[in-house]
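dumping these here so i dont lose them again. two proteins, back to back, each one seq then structure tokens. dont judge the mess
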Amino acid sequence: MQIKITGSGSYIPTLKVTNQDFANHEFLNDDGSKLNQPNDVIAQKFTEITGIVERRYAEDNLNTSDIATIAAQRAIADAKIDPETLDYIIFAHNFGDVKKGAIQGDMLPSLAAKVKYNLRIKNPKCIAYDMLFGCPGWVESVIQARSFVMSGMAKRCLVIGAETLSRVVDPHDRDSMIYSDGAGATIIEETTEDGGILATNSASYTYDEANYLFFGKSYNEDNDPDVRYIKMYGRKIYEFALVNVPNAMKECLEKANLDIKQVKKILIHQANEKMDEAIVQRFYKLYKEPYPEGIMPMSIHTLGNSSVATVPTLYDLIMKGKIENQSLNKGDVILFASVGAGMNINAIAYQM
């Protein structure tokens, strides 16, 4: 049995926000004191570390489930399937539908149920549910979809990753410049073609690491202390990722009985350019192999970090020829990998 991605789609919001757009923000330290550098210096250092020059925010009238629906429609059209034949809709996100200006996420009904409603699917045997797994949510959802197909519980699944992080960030926290909005979707199904998902690997580290990403109050003490925003211990996450993600990728490759020289591309969660480069470089060091030029396509420079949406969006953009000097061809072996809140890590070895 071969299980493959047979269609993909994405939604890239139209609102571009450049680093210069943060020129008038009041950035503060976590104790509420002002940063001792002007915003142009902060933005320059931010770009050097993350690689982010601009990011995309969803239009005010669109929620996470709305942009997810658009991506899903495009994936369904790309796969040329009848949506009524879907057995599962698995929707990875973290904060639900957060209306512009609101302070509360809406997850009732589940976002997967909202997408099924928006797609006007009548089939009650199409099971819709949400995946809360931090940034690795889409990768983990693909792993679950594969398990459903392997077990005979499903033949065809719609897997979505979408988020509107711009609505849950503290404007006084310079880390807010990292986050963005977006949606990616894929059809996962049984096929007679060669290749597909060759092996998977997942891990959750919670003993010491559970709260590396968390919800906390604004750095501005004048703000309502009961309103919470996404916060992180960036240095701890960086050190954690560098140690654990390369090992998880190696374990996945070994499960697939593949040699590292067979890997043509690594599609890693677009969290931070320098961190992603360090992860992949360390991965190749585990094999005592040089870091291949062009092995790691990037979208973070113009799209920012949209959490669960980064990997499926990157995949779709490459498939549609929208990432310069990057392509995926039949027979190519690629690695999907992600790390995020939990702390969770996962990887998929996949042959086109």
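---- next one ----
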Amino acid sequence: MVDFAVNVQGSGPPEWLRERLAGRLEELGRYPDAGEERAVREAVAARHGRRADEVLLLAGAAEGFAMLPRLGAALAAVIHPSFTEPELALREAGVPVARVVLEPPYSLESVAGQANAPDSAVGAQGGRRGVPVSEARRPQVPEAADLVVVGNPTNPTSVLHSRESVLGLRRPGRVVVVDEAFADAVVGETESLAGESYSDVLVLRSLTKTWALAGLRCGYFLGHPDLLARLNQGRAHWPLGTLQLEAIAATCTPEAVAESQRLAENIAAHRDAMIPRLRALGIEVCEPARGPFLLIRVPDAELLRKRLAGKGIAVRRGDTFPGLESGFLRLAVRPAAEVDVLITAIAELGL
């Protein structure tokens, strides 16, 4: 299918990265070397201007989300609409979760830095999907929340929150987790907190999207050593394999970082070209958009999704994201030739 559903860029890693991974295949008969693991942490630290003890290597961002219950939160707040895996991991571990559902245009500025109110539209049991929040019941982060999770840029809204608004979530005794899985797809990685050290902020990074490594599972946490130690407690030995270590080290070199920024510039250009073409069809596009995907709204999203699938085009449904109604779809940003196929199909099918 023509894939607008998955946000991975390309069908596989670039040739130079494949060659580096292939060069390590002869070493798979032995366990990874502890010295190499330290060297990779140092490479990640150098990439972000941090210390090596502020890096925890992960088998993908998904492993990082699964670790969040180890922080021992009494109440976790998850900013929505957003990726649902962090909330799932917390709930499955028995951690109470408050959903903080943002209103369009889904900006964090409306909740960061505000004090909690008794009539807040946030419930410890998860709140209600698709219920509008009046001015008197603005979504707010409960002051009792000792863990807050936010995506930046956020999946699926493509909103890039300001670093000030993210830092505005901090409170004494609270840990803020920033999911920056798509941050390297933003030109200049603006608003990222990856290069800043705070005792109460954890930044989660993934290599899956930009480098098309979904099948290898690579990522890392950046944060204070004390927080990382709590996350790492009880973990299995050799949690990452040789190829994962190689991939992380390879994509942290200055040359790779420069390449990722060229890719981010391409994504921005494709996104800027894609938005007016969608709007010309009468489609509502949520803006400002800064990620490698777009959130759109159409009269009957489910019907359009099924009809596009019948034409061999895959798009991501939006109603599985808390806070979004059934009229939303998410589209990965793609080059003009693929967008041509999508636009032609929608024009033929109608909305």
